[in-house]
Design goal:
Blueprint: H1 11-23, E1 34-38, E2 44-49, H2 80-86, E3 97-102, H3 106-115, E4 119-124, H4 131-142, E5 146-149
Parallel strand pairs: 3-4, 4-5
Antiparallel strand pairs: 1-2, 1-3
Helix pairs in contact: 3-4
């Protein structure tokens, strides 16, 4: 009797993979972040990446990280988590999980809490010492929203568009 495959990816790896694939859509030359929202039936109900709002031409806005505020990307970019919430398929996000490549900032955390998402799963918390991210954790804790680093032994996951690999 043929047994099932043993080396398939977990749900966490799958949804974080979707978040990372979404990040590849970002036009930001220095930071690419993606997010994926999943309901309690393991159905994807939203995805997003960091980028400009619809109707704003990527070639007409700055991508700089330093300089005068209006000459940087910061006042114009919509973060991946907020985009995933705004891009949801029209469902109530109550009790959903959000997978994100980077721990969410305080502004995205407000939207996460307000939307009813109950768990944040992240890949990197590289800015954890920054007050913006400390504020995020304070709010998540007070709102009883769980957060955790994704658990995986994977270092990478390769996609192939070679028809022979299917």
């Amino acid at each position: 009797m043929l047994k099932k495959r043993q080396n398939y990816i977990s749900w966490d790896e799958y949804f974080m993979g979707v978040a990372l694939l979404s990040a590849m859509r970002s036009k930001d030359p220095s930071t690419q972040v993606g997010a994926c929202i999943v309901n309690n039936k393991n159905k994807i109900v939203g995805a997003g990446y960091n980028g400009l709002p619809m109707g704003c031409d990527d070639d007409e806005f700055p991508w700089e990280k330093q300089g005068g505020f209006l000459d940087t990307k910061y006042p114009y970019i919509c973060h991946a988590e907020l985009n995933a919430i705004l891009n949801n398929i029209g469902m109530d996000l109550k009790d959903c999980k959000i997978y994100t490549a980077l721990f969410p900032c305080n502004e995205c955390t407000k939207a996460i809490i307000q939307s009813g998402i109950r768990e944040v799963i992240y890949l990197s918390d590289k800015y954890e010492g920054n007050d913006i991210f400390k504020a995020s954790k304070i709010m998540l804790d007070k709102a009883a929203v769980k957060y955790r680093k994704v658990s995986t032994k994977l270092v990478n996951l390769t996609l192939s568009f070679n028809e022979g690999d299917v």
